[in-house]
Design goal:
The chain is of the alpha/beta class. It is 46% helix and 12% strand. The structure holds 5-phosphoarabinonic acid (PA5).
Length: 490
């Protein structure tokens, strides 16, 4: 029996969402002048109560779309409907671990940020530097940019004949990923012969649409499907994230069990006790009060790249010009990534004393996977020796609490999400929680959280600049714009 099959263990791994420090009466402002209170924008119990009918309406609307590919809500089913896929992934992962020393993932946005965040969270923090026998799989490189220097550096550190490439693109046509694909195919053909492609490349893409699906069929590549109705940034719990994770020894079944548990928690009918719904509502209410920035500050290096993954989810889902009803609304909240305690020495000054335009989200951990005691020494220096005998665990947690208190005292809205520990189960919970929160917030804002029309123009301009057939007029318009006036270029 797996540990996640035990009810008690699951409950002991439940993540907590604490929004005390977003509330009037908790944030230290009551005795202050009304103009200061207004700036702080703490939420009142009445405001929350008044918003509950809208939240209930959002719940009903979301329930109607739940699981529907046509509404891009098929991600909600991923914890349950992948038994066969998971078996196939585990078998492919076993093959990768047996046959390869390097695993290169090509992908971008939703096809890369999840794999990066999960690898950082669940594997050794210096995974690639460990000797092979101490690693759970091949060295992993997720290449999510088209910087020529990075591509060249990749080929300096891998040995082509020992490398498996996983190409991930839902659309199968993203220029960045497809240019990387051309490079890998060319290198493999050139060095190892055309047949090596079939043995060393795996595709993760749409079942039929797009160039990668065609290439996979032509070359007979092993292929995993991104299910219909699962958008890029909601795709971590399908083969997009599960395959690279499993190849590096991560327990993907436990991740899915964690997501299923969070799904259960987010079905709580009393919405005041529903984590995902309350987090979505609180975010929505703070946006209404002009909090345009959302800072995420994990107090754990393992969760560092969760902020990157979340930044895409939050920015691309909620940053919208039009409402469902086609009204111009310009919604969104700018995500900012920080790391505790590192950024206490960099950004926290701004958060404490700068403008009241932010919400700070702390990501904390109850129990770190290791304990490190600070040794004794320098007994003659009390201002240093007070640290001795404490653990680094106590130090990082005290610094988190101290910063929460300082920000609260300064009237800066903050909230805390706590993981009992970082493991595959809690990570599945966390990701599913954020996906629900984003969906709920989008619903309350009255926008489509699942499209991204704002990135289209840039893509089209790139096609035109690189001469893709059909984009000649765009190219002409861009060429005309490029003739800038010299006096404005210094
Ligand atoms: O969330 C999204 O849909 C996007 O960020 C995509 O993940 C990103 O553009 C990459 O797309 P694709 O997987 O089609 O290459």
């Amino acid at each position: 029996m797996s540990r996640y099959e035990s009810k008690d263990w699951k409950q002991s791994m439940k993540l907590r969402y604490d929004y005390n420090n977003m509330l009037l009466g908790k944030v230290d402002v009551e005795s202050q002048h009304p103009s200061f209170q207004k700036k702080v924008g703490a939420l009142t119990a009445q405001e929350i109560d008044a918003a509950m009918p809208a939240l209930e309406k959002a719940r009903l609307s979301i329930a109607r779309k739940w699981g529907k590919p046509s509404r891009m809500m098929a991600w909600t089913k991923l914890p349950y409907n992948q038994k066969t896929v998971v078996r196939d992934i585990l078998s492919a992962a076993k093959g990768i671990r047996k046959n390869f020393e390097y695993l290169v993932v090509f992908g971008i946005g939703g096809s890369a940020l999840g794999p990066i965040a999960v690898q950082q969270a669940l594997n050794h923090l210096h995974y690639n530097d460990l000797p092979a026998e101490k690693r759970n799989g091949p060295k992993l490189y997720v290449v999510d940019n088209v910087d020529p220097e990075r591509m060249s550096a990749l080929f300096d550190v891998i040995e082509l004949e020992k490398t498996c490439f996983i190409i991930i693109t839902k659309s199968g046509s993203t220029s960045e990923t497809m240019s990387q694909t051309l490079i890998a195919f060319d290198a493999l053909k050139d060095k190892l012969g055309e047949d090596s492609i079939r043995h060393q490349v795996i595709a993760v893409t749409d079942k039929a649409k797009g160039n990668l699906a065609r290439i996979a069929a032509d070359y007979g590549l092993k292929k995993f499907v991104v299910p219909d109705g699962v958008g890029g940034r909601f795709s971590e719990l399908c083969p997009v994230g599960l395959l690279p994770a499993a190849a590096c020894g991560i327990d993907i079944e436990e991740m899915l069990a964690g997501a299923a548990y969070m799904d259960e928690l987010c079905r709580e009918a009393d919405l005041t006790k529903n984590l995902g719904y309350m987090a979505g509502l609180i975010a929505y209410l703070t946006m209404k009060k002009g909090k345009n920035i959302q800072v995420m500050i994990p107090y754990s290096d393992s969760l560092k790249y969760m902020s990157d993954w979340y930044a895409q989810l939050w920015a691309e889902s909620l940053g919208k010009k039009y409402s469902f009803r086609k009204k111009v609304v310009h919604t969104g909240q700018t995500p900012v990534k920080a790391l505790g305690v590192t950024d206490q020495h960099s950004q926290v000054q701004l958060y404490a004393e700068g403008p009241f335009d932010k919400v700070i989200t702390f990501l904390g951990v109850d129990s770190y996977r290791t304990t490190y005691t600070i040794p004794t020494g320098f007994e003659g220096m009390p201002s240093l020796s007070f640290l001795s005998g404490h653990t680094m665990n106590e130090l990082i947690q005290s610094e988190q609490f101290a910063t929460e208190m300082a920000l609260t005292h300064a009237g800066k809205l903050n909230q805390t999400i706590t993981l009992p520990e970082v493991n595959a189960f809690t990570l599945g919970e966390l990701m599913f929680f954020f996906e629900v929160q984003t969906t709920v917030c989008g619903e309350l804002l009255g926008i489509d959280a699942f499209d991204q029309p704002g990135v289209e123009e840039g893509k089209i301009n790139t096609y035109a600049l690189l001469g893709r057939p059909g984009y000649e007029d765009v190219k002409k318009a861009l060429d005309a714009q490029e003739k800038k006036e010299d006096k404005f270029v210094i």
